[in-house]
Amino acid sequence: MSRLRIDRLAVRLGGKTRLRDLSLAVDAGELFGLIGPNGAGKSTLVKAAAQLLPYQGRIRLDGQDLAGLEAPERARRIAYLSQGDVVQWPITVEDLVALGRHPYRGSWWRGAGAPSAEDRAAVEAALQATDIAHLRQRKVTELSGGERARARLARVLAVQAPLILADEPVAALDPRHQLQVMRLLRQHCDRGGSLILVLHDLTLASRFCDRLLLLHQGERIALGAPAEVLTAESLRSVYGIRAVTGAHDGQGYVLPWACESPASGGA
Amino acid sequence: MTSMDGASPRGPLTLNLLLLGLLLALSLVSLRFGSAPLSLGEVVGGLLGTGPEEHRLIVQQIRLPRVALAWLVGLALGASGAALQGLLRNPLAEPGLLGISSSAGLGAVLVLYFGVTAISLWILPAAAMAFALVATLLLYALTRAGSNNLTLILAGVALSSLAGALTSLALNLAPDPGGVQDIVLWLLGSISDLSFEEVRLCLPFVLLGLGLLLMAAPALDVLSLGEAEAATLGVDLRRLRGLIIFGSALSVGATVAVTGTIGFVGLVVPHLLRRFVAYRPGRLLLASALGGALLVLAADIALRLLDTPRELMLGVVTALVGAPFFLGLVLRSRRDLL
Amino acid sequence: MSGLQRSPPGSQRWERRPGATGVRPRRGTAPTRLALVLALCAFSAQAALPTVVSTDLCSDFLLLQIAAPQQILSVSRQSQDPRVSPVAELARRYPANRGSVEDLLYLKPDIALVYSGWAAKRHAALLATEGTRLIAVPYPRDWSDTLGTTREIAAKIGRAEVGEAKAADAEQRMRVLAARARPYRMLYLRPNGGTAGQGTYVDDVIARLGLRNLAAEQGLSGWGRFPLERLVTAPPDVFLLGYFDRTRSKTGSAYGRHPLLRGLLERAPSIRIPGNAWGCGGLELVGAAEQIAAQLDRLTLGAMPARGD
């Protein structure tokens, strides 16, 4: 049984169709990449899966319809990392990461109580995994961009959800931190977790993802292993680019090289 | 040891106990001062009912309600300010600046204007709370999408001016000039010479409002992450908004109905206390409520100690302290504003 | 500054402000038009008297008492509102104005009576070129101010004899009242805690009645507020309650509702005076004083109230 199963998903927002008749399945342990040009519907798909948008169709997690799941239960099983940097107050890194344990809190009158041993262990593990344990007392607003991205990722890891939805987690990072974060995400999947990831960097997508979904104007263009999806034809028709492709250490890379006039509408 | 099981839970507890201790001490100080020159012993005698009758009357029926109202006003304003700042994720949010207090004032003025308090005095806080609620809802609708400081303050300015204009309109049309002047003065905010009748009039609503606000505390912490991530962490955003909007409207509206508008408390207190709760908006709530009571009580003592020909209005004193403070905050966040 | 924040000077000063009320214009109803026509006819008959317009409630009171009907061109709209004016019926015989410069330019009186804080005084020169002379009616600080103002304004509008007669009559009545000693401490109180200290005509009237003004004794001056605590430590022998007849003030003012005050009012005798009986401090003060004296003399027929219980 696949972990996440999406059937005939359609999203309309503000009178515009954002996603059309989309079906896919993501397995346990899979790192699933969403690629496509701006406005293709990648973020929309992730938000729909996180139940942040109204949609048509069915989204099931381990066989259960997500729409029917209680909010705390859903929160324990799906962790979502939004695009952009939105932490408002200068709270400490540790407090930030500990917010990932919110779904495990009891009712409000117990909410103010001390965190459980599992909570502490989860926070500690997330801090270690993202290599920010030494920053735990620092204020989030005083971190560098890379440190903050890792802190936010640690917050997501602390949920210990079987499925993580991450919207462009490496967009603002320098190459070294991009690689670090991608490796972290890979580890999550290697331990049995599933991950749906929105990406713009085609090389990172090619190297780290098990499968890719190429979206264009809300529709599925291609779905499959990176090598099957990132073909010269799809890059030309969807992105309107020509790319240098190749392989290094047995892993493929895709280097956007020149613009080409795109075929209209997609495949 | 990490701070999670160390300082954090104990930190705010220590802070809150400290604030509570100061509050109790200052309440005794507040009982000490008034236009009748009572000694400390006479105050204690009056409080315990062992002294002469007139000391008992002064302490129990004039000074004690005053202390109680300082508590209620401060609790309401401090907690509402902190909660609104957390909800709107903006340190400049405050019931007075956002026009919630002046809207509540408008509700109260209308009730006084039409004289319907003759039916039941409870109509007064009810109207003030209803108007505060409408204002808060309006404000939330106006600022929810991309609330930056500028839109928030502009929305607050618009709302305050509207409430102010409608209040002036009511006063302009009032047939009874003497009554008008009473209302104008009342709007400036004062807790002097009030009785336990006024305390009773706002106590249940302030407590209810505080309860709603405190229930929102854990979710408010999570909201630091933004609405989307908070929602995926199981925060019911509609419930959270409801708690804070109703909680603020109830507590602020009820106190405004009794004491008039007292400004800036909800701005100054959360700002001063935020660092002591590690900037967590949820933990700030209770501390800010206690701190608000402390500030109002201190201001109310100060205006009695100041040797002015006539006692100053409490709202005037808090504004004199709070407005420069607000300006400083605006200057510091200027980049954000522009 | 504190004067602004603190307690009101009684509504008296307020009531001098024209245009504060919002009754709809009532220009030229049949009786007023008739009055105007009559007035104009009479005017042409005895052309000696200057025409006068008064622009606020207190000037209206004065004008209606001392002027000849034919010289009154218009009175302020406030004085036609029975809710605030005891002379509403009389005032309705004349066209109403809202106390604006435009009103004066349109009515073209020889003399316009305004209150001392009238905002449009800067147009005095303009009005002068149109033949209208502005006379500010001062706010009285005591009874002799009142008499002086009456005589002065009367002289200026050509009615010196009437003014003198009315003033002399009022002066005489007040002197009669003062003949009797009333050794009680009286406190004037409004529902919002407002009182009258030294330098107010209320203080003066209280003194002329042979009473002692508690507010002044406690060191208050001007229109101030009497703290509740002092009421406990220094209660008056008799209360003089102003404006307590208005339900709105009653429910709107926590001071007036305070159980402590209620308790004191139950124990100590009190005299009520309607809100508009002496709000302007004009000659009507003597009427108010007579009312107070009559009520007081009725109250204290028996023994002098033992103070304190």
TrEMBL record, chain A:
Gene3D superfamilies: P-loop containing nucleotide triphosphate hydrolases. Pfam families: ABC_tran. Part of the ABC transporter complex HmuTUV involved in hemin import. Responsible for energy coupling to the transport system. It comes from Thiorhodococcus minor. Keywords: ATP-binding, Nucleotide-binding, Translocase, Transport. InterPro entries: AAA+_ATPase (IPR003593), ABC_transporter-like_ATP-bd (IPR003439), ABC_transporter-like_CS (IPR017871), P-loop_NTPase (IPR027417). Belongs to the ABC transporter superfamily. This is ABC transporter ATP-binding protein. Residues 4-242 form the ABC transporter domain. One of its GO terms (molecular function) is ATP hydrolysis activity.
